[in-house]
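Lab meeting, action items carried over

1. Structure of the two-component assembly. Owner: GW. Status: complete.
Input record:
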Amino acid sequence: MSYSVVTITREFGSGGRTIAKKLAEELGYDYYDYELVQKIAQESGFAEGFIEEFGEEVSTGGFFSFFGNNWGALNINDQLYFSERKVILELAEKGNCIIVGRCADYILKDRKDTLNVFIYADMEWKKDRIVNLYGETDVDIEKRILEKDKRRKAYYKYYTDRKWNRAANYHVSLESSELGIDTCVEILKSIVK
Amino acid sequence: MSYSVVTITREFGSGGRTIAKKLAEELGYDYYDYELVQKIAQESGFAEGFIEEFGEEVSTGGFFSFFGNNWGALNINDQLYFSERKVILELAEKGNCIIVGRCADYILKDRKDTLNVFIYADMEWKKDRIVNLYGETDVDIEKRILEKDKRRKAYYKYYTDRKWNRAANYHVSLESSELGIDTCVEILKSIVK
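Predicted assembly:
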């Protein structure tokens, strides 16, 4: 079987985004990153920076509830989610693409042509990788990783009612720190083709 | 990196055992099945049938507690587990082998030469597979699968304090019903080599 869409759910610092980019290059697929944010901005009317920050994470203070108890209206998070969902469904329909994060695995779960992948890694490896990529900062790196993943997990749980680290949500789960980024790309390439 | 030991944790009916056998053939590794039971029998003094039935599952009535409140003595389950653990550590030391189930991933977690794999599958696929392999029975197949996995999960949780379907316990998790048995074998072969 071959797949025209690949979704990649990943831990922060695991290299999931790098794997997605390399895989897209190898397969000649579209990799949506900044373009995805732009499309969601057009669809939703939200600012790109807002989408980048809250399009797959719960904010530190929890979900927004600017609409108070006005149950008839969607809150901001839900509005953003449904815009993302619409854009992701359209991109999948176009085919030959790789989509990172944003519950795409769940949104596309009924598409037979979609391969759902989870990438995770050992904490020490993620810490080293982040320092190498972004340099040292004043913020404690482990705390930042845990906080980031906690917010992604909460977002995923809220919109999918699933635990994001459960193997059965995906067709393939790979530990990038053990296997290496390039081996992960090779494995996925062999499956997609 | 190459691996001299592969552990395969699997859902009942997922084909994990078949994948293990084929992978062993392809790699020229030892695959321990009946021989593992025999070794554990020699080590523990328990009957082979007992080991096959309770060596990786909680019994339907829960863990055995024939020793009552004699806290100084190991209960039967713990005795069996520690015999299995000893045999598995010895086999891993010998190397070039594949071990299915029995918490081997956890027992060997500190060995750098060990690849830990989880195999799971879609329920309808597992049901069809079991009927094809063993024929129809009076017992409801889905109930049998759920019960079997429930007992394996409880056993795994008890001895490892981990959830067996959590991707991060393993280096690779594969959905056999989606990818196919042969593709799973090919992926694992490419990683081990």
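2. GW to write a short summary for the group page. Key points so far: Residues 66-70 of chain B have pLDDT under 50 and may be disordered. The longest strand of chain B covers residues 114-120.
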